[in-house]
């Protein structure tokens, strides 16, 4: 199984962005490309070649779902697994995220200390299922 | 014989019910015939009911009834028909037909001299009264309708508002809670003891805020009726073992242990397992919270009159007497409680969950022993494993 190393992270709130980036790089040891908008993510994604996309849903401008659709069209990012981070986790929202093929939804507020571990678990489960299929 | 003055408007059923006592049976028959013919004319029109109206008028004259009494009979038949038809928006046709029908009934009365005066007086008077009542009824109906719409609108606004506030709170809360969390983990070593203590206070309280925001959203979902329940058969014993296991670490942190005792084998309920697990987490954490150190919290189940009863018993100080009545209310917390980590919404959420699953929650408490329990209808597995034997076709 390929280990999880590179995470493309999109979040428009600067404070949440810096906390999350700090925890992913310091605690998880991941390489993080943090973007403040969907547009920026689309511009940087191909060059960064992420293992995993971590997207906020309620982005200003291009929404998280729209950003995902745009990212999916990029070469090399088409089937990159995605995890959403959101404050909106009503059942009908969750159904939408699932339809878009996201692996998991991280609900805000979350614990930065355990975020990296959660992502690693999600990653491992995804690969386990993928090989089981 | 002069007829008694018309009574105030009363329901036609009441008039009919009174009839056997107040009037001889031919009169009661007349009232019933009138109501029937009137209803027929209102809905279908035509000559036949009008002819019956005339005949009924003649019978009324013959029975010694006066115009005023007929007017009362008419008014009651009209109100009954009116209420029946109002929903169909046919009030103006009804008013029109009502007048025609009454005029026909009263025609025989015009042949007596007293009757003639009465008829013209009653027709104009009655029209005015009916119109007033019609307007009042319509106004009441419109008011009720707009009140209902207004209430629905304000409920929807409230739901939207709570959802919006909830989302708006989560964004800054994510930053505050996350920063404090990282401060402890990543930058903790650079802080002296006093600073660490303050960070700890801030962290615990931000945790509490997170729970509060979660619980408010949860309760709102119950109120708005958007909470969905997936009811499935659930065996009590494995469920309780699972619940205890999932909450063990919380208890261990307080030096308390959980023990599952006395659960009848083969006891099943129908419930939403996730929601019921939420109830168990609440009851178990409350029990652990209020237990003396190194105490044991007992988890048991029993059959109680068609229900499965699950109980969680702690050996804490007991629920203060004055607090007992309020315990399932929102933001209820015993005044003496030193533990302020909860949102104060936990038990009201438990109750809402059980209400939605046709269950109930309650407690018995004395110093040194408090049991919270919930009852859910027992479910009997159908003998599906043994396929029903069908008689072969002849």
How are the SSEs ordered, and which strands pair?
The complex is a heterodimer of chains A (133) and B (394).
Chain A: E1 6-10, H1 14-26, E2 31-35, H2 38-48, E3 52-56, H3 64-72, E4 82-86, H4 91-99, E5 104-107, H5 112-132
Parallel strand pairs in A: 1-2, 1-3, 3-4, 4-5
Chain B: H1 12-22, H2 25-44, H3 47-62, H4 67-86, H5 91-106, H6 113-185, H7 193-224, E1 232-235, H8 236-252, E2 257-260, E3 268-271, H9 273-289, E4 296-304, E5 307-314, H10 346-356, E6 360-366, E7 369-377
Helix pairs in contact in B: 2-3, 2-4, 2-5, 3-5, 4-5, 4-6, 5-6, 6-7, 7-10, 8-9, 9-10
Account of the protein in words:
Chain A has 133 residues and is α/β, with parallel strands linked by helices. Chain A has five helices and five strands. Chain A has a five-stranded parallel beta sheet, sandwiched between helices. In chain A, helix 1 links the parallel strand 1 and strand 2. In chain A, helix 1 crosses helix 5. The longest helix of chain A is centred in the C-terminal third of the chain and has 21 residues. Chain B is elongated and about 110 Å long. In chain B, helix 2 packs across helix 4 and helix 8 crosses helix 9. In chain B, strands 2-4-5-7-6 form a five-stranded mixed beta sheet. In chain B, strands 1-3 form a two-stranded antiparallel ribbon. In chain B, a hairpin with a 2-residue loop joins strand 6 and strand 7. Chain B is of the alpha+beta class. Classes of the chains: A alpha/beta (133), B alpha+beta (394). At the A-B interface, helix 1 of A face helix 6 of B.
